[in-house]
Write a structure and sequence with these properties.
CATH superfamily: IscX-like
Largest sheet: none
Number of helices: 3
Helix content: 55-70%
Distance between the termini: 23 Å
CATH topology: Arc Repressor Mutant, subunit A
Length: about 60
C-alpha cells in the first residue's frame, strides 16, 4: 500500500484498531499506525496533513 491507497488504508485501520475513536485520532499516531500496517511500503516523507485528513475521513466513513 501507498499513501494514496486511502480506502485500503482505512479498511486496514478498522481491522487493526477496532476500538479506536476515529474522531479523536492524533495525526502523529495516525501516521505511525499507517506506516506499521502490514503491506504498507511508502516514503514517510510523502505524507502530509491533507493525506492524513483523507485517511481519517475514510476511516470514519468505514466505521459508520
Amino acid at each position: 500500500m501507498k499513501w494514496t491507497d486511502i480506502n485500503d488504508i482505512a479498511i486496514e485501520l478498522c481491522d487493526a484498531y477496532p476500538e479506536q475513536d476515529t474522531l479523536r485520532v492524533d495525526f502523529v499516531d495516525l501516521r505511525d499506525w499507517v506506516m506499521a500496517l502490514p503491506g504498507f511500503s511508502d516514503d514517510p516523507g510523502q505524507c502530509g496533513e491533507k493525506i492524513l485528513e483523507a485517511i481519517q475521513q475514510a476511516w470514519i466513513d468505514e466505521v459508520q
